[in-house]
Write a structure and sequence with these properties.
heterotetramer; A: 218 residues; Glutaconate Coenzyme A-transferase; ten-stranded mixed β-sheet; 5 helices; B: alpha/beta; eight-stranded mixed β-sheet; three-stranded antiparallel β-sheet; 21% helix
């Protein structure tokens, strides 16, 4: 069975380590915050200028001056700090953020990512995505293995305009966990009940399969 | 040194057609509502607006777009605005998209007297086309130039009569960076106090960067995406 | 995430010989007194110290110079220190002098992930020798590289258990810049409080830049030049 | 009569305009703060990180955390702001400081300045001087016209290592007020009782004298 979005988020949450500073993109990545393992403390960074992002506010407690990078109303946790957008991207560029999780339309076998623009569609802009992918020391992509047409999103080369080059380190899709290595996508885990063969058939880029591939524990 | 002006209309009265403006804010958070309203009233046109976003149809910079006052937007993300999309597709509006961190840092660079900065954002993408790429310690960076604006218009929480500013929470965002990047910087604040009433240890924008200041009124502070959790 | 350490000795215990250190402070104002004392006790040697000044004979970095623990100083101004002068003239100590603003900005650049910056300081002087000069808008600038240190050691007024720091008055100076420039950053504070006790709107150094923190003790805060005016 | 140091400071103070942000160097420049004309408000910047520097404290009220760029104990005035040293030099480089006053060992007729290093003497460093002279939009030098040996300090070319090039706009010496122009030192005013001939004889660099040269009003 392919993973649900929640299960993808939950699997990614298992990559978190105590003390990590983490930037979570919009969509599935945001859900990762709901599955932070017991005993692991992470600090969430929001690139509009906050360290220490907390959960959504209770009804009636929304503060218009307090939003996240997705423009959603949020709260803070004790120990939070506000700063301007230049310092925010400064700490990202300086490698102080331990992990960035974001979505993608396409990832290539050498780690290129495309997630901001579709030709002939209205372009809304890259926001902070290009800064994040160019700067983060550890990038995990949360994505569906195939697009709605059934075409693989893990490609030999991206076909869409790039957001960044050679930057993705790991992918957690609805079908598999893969490392992006010098030699291609290395299959690490399969979704429960999903066969290596299915993953192979839905991965257009070079797939490396070595030994037994365990099922994910989600 | 008289920096205090009466209101938004006085603050923006000499902004001419074709001016290059910086407008603070992220989404609808921390935007200079009073000055945008005054620019709409004034009807100044052919503006180039450097702003992370372009507002929504009926708020923020969207109000200026509706009046066709904007010639060019320089932003990182411009969704959520149907009129914007119409003008863009019809060719009435020019748009330059810039990575968010690059935009922030280019504004900051002007305020720090740095003519250009290096950033890895956009290397290998269409953003890099025509730009100088330079390798430092094995990593590639783009050379990006500082942004200066004829007028920077920012919104702060508190300010004093010497122009010192303090922002509230994530309404800080681009505001202090743009405050530094204006040849003339206009600040609207929710509360204007006398010089000496703000703690000098907690000033976000020193008054040297601010030329005009006034206490705004009737702040709507619209929320773009109200997200809540349930009480259990 | 355990950033709090017991004291200065624990904070500096793994600083090895030949380490490159940044030490915050301007003159004797805002210097990490406790950590300097611990480094003297530890006896670590052949240090490269990036610090705007080099202390006086019996205080600040002067205490480390007296013990001959410093191989190289990178500073903007190194007067007021007889032992320093002796070691410099005898060739025991290497000194690299850097304009103060360049020094500050090179530290900042590391914390902003910018590999190099452009500054006009030193153009046409011996500081420019061997450096790349570049013209922007008719003015010449030097390309100067970001500074990173193995350990940055800073002193703040208040800090919390998550590493957030607030400095007092002009004791801020180089401290927040160096806090950003350390691969490992050690902060000593006059008062250490629990996370949540500092106003998140007034943090000068966000905790992400700070790896170790402790509450210092017995601060002398020596005044280098006591200047007063008469009451009439 | 040659001006005293206090009179040089007083004359420079007349260059101040209401609303100016001013950086005053160590020595004579510091004295300028004592002669700010009535009705003129200026904000003093101290490059270690302060706008709104006030006078020295009263005995017993010194604050070790509050010093100026000369490391002297000081106070603040209402409306002051503290910041780090990078922002401090940032505002200087960005041309936000209206006037910088500093001392010099030598100034050349094209505006070069030398004030940080004497060969074969212990070099203490340039501190912020190189940043200030390279960045300030308006630089006035306060200096003695001649050195203790009687040699002119206004030269065709500096002989000492330079602090900055083509940056000095005006000089107020104990003998004269001079603009630094494309064509050399232009004599504007003479100290009371000092002749144009004396100034000419003590100025080694090119001196431009046009029309009557008035006496200073100090």
């Amino acid at each position: 069975m392919a993973l649900t979005k929640e299960q993808i988020a939950k699997r990614i949450a298992r990559e978190l380590r105590d003390g990590y500073y983490v930037n979570l993109g919009i969509g599935i990545p945001t859900l990762v915050a709901n599955y932070i393992p017991e005993g692991i403390n992470v600090v969430l960074q929001s690139e509009n200028g906050l360290l220490g992002m907390g959960p959504f506010p209770f009804e009636g407690e929304e503060d218009p001056d307090l939003i996240n990078a997705g423009k959603q109303t949020i709260t803070t946790v004790p120990g939070s700090a506000f700063f301007d957008s230049a310092l925010s991207f400064g700490m990202i560029r300086a490698g102080k953020v331990d992990l960035t999780v974001l979505g993608a339309m396409e990832v290539s076998e050498n780690g290129d990512i495309a997630n901001w623009k579709i030709p002939d569609k209205m372009v809304k802009g890259m926001g902070g995505a290009m800064d994040l992918v160019a700067s983060a020391k550890n990038i995990i992509v949360a994505m569906m293995h195939s697009n709605p047409k059934g075409e693989s999103k893990l490609l030999p080369e991206c076909t869409l305009p790039l957001t960044g080059v050679r930057c993705v380190k790991k992918i957690v899709s609805d079908l598999a966990v893969l490392d992006v290595t010098d030699k291609g996508f290395k299959l690490l885990e399969r979704a429960p009940g999903v066969s290596v063969e299915e993953i192979r058939s839905k991965t257009a880029g070079k797939l490396i399969i070595e030994g037994e591939i365990p099922e994910m524990n989600v | 040194m008289k920096k205090v002006v009466l209101d938004a209309d006085e603050a923006v009265k000499d902004i001419p057609d074709n001016a290059v403006l910086m407008l603070g804010g992220f989404g609808l958070c921390g935007i200079p509502e009073n000055c945008i309203a005054a620019l709409v009233r004034k009807g100044v046109s052919d503006l180039t607006c450097i702003s992370n976003n372009a507002g929504v149809d009926d708020f923020g910079i969207g109000l200026m777009l509706k009046q066709k006052q904007v010639k060019k937007m320089i932003s990182s993300y411009v969704g959520e605005n149907a009129e914007f999309e119409r003008q863009l597709l019809s060719g009435e509006l020019e748009v330059e998209l810039i990575p968010q961190g690059t935009l922030a840092t280019r504004c900051m660079a002007a305020g720090y007297g740095m003519p250009a900065i290096f950033t890895p954002a956009g290397v290998g993408t269409e953003v890099a086309v025509g730009k100088e790429v330079r390798n430092f310690n094995g990593k590639e960076y783009l050379l990006e130039y500082a942004f200066e604006a004829d007028f920077a218009i920012v919104k702060a929480w508190k300010g004093d009569t010497d122009g010192n500013l303090i922002y509230m929470e994530t309404a800080r965002n681009f505001n202090p960076l743009m405050a530094m990047g204006g040849r003339v910087t206009i600040a609207e604040v929710e509360e204007l106090v006398s010089a000496g009433e703000l703690d000098p240890n907690n000033i976000h924008t020193p008054g040297i960067y601010v030329h005009r200041i006034f206490q705004g009124k009737d702040y709507e502070k619209r929320i773009e995406q109200k997200t809540i959790r349930k009480r259990n």
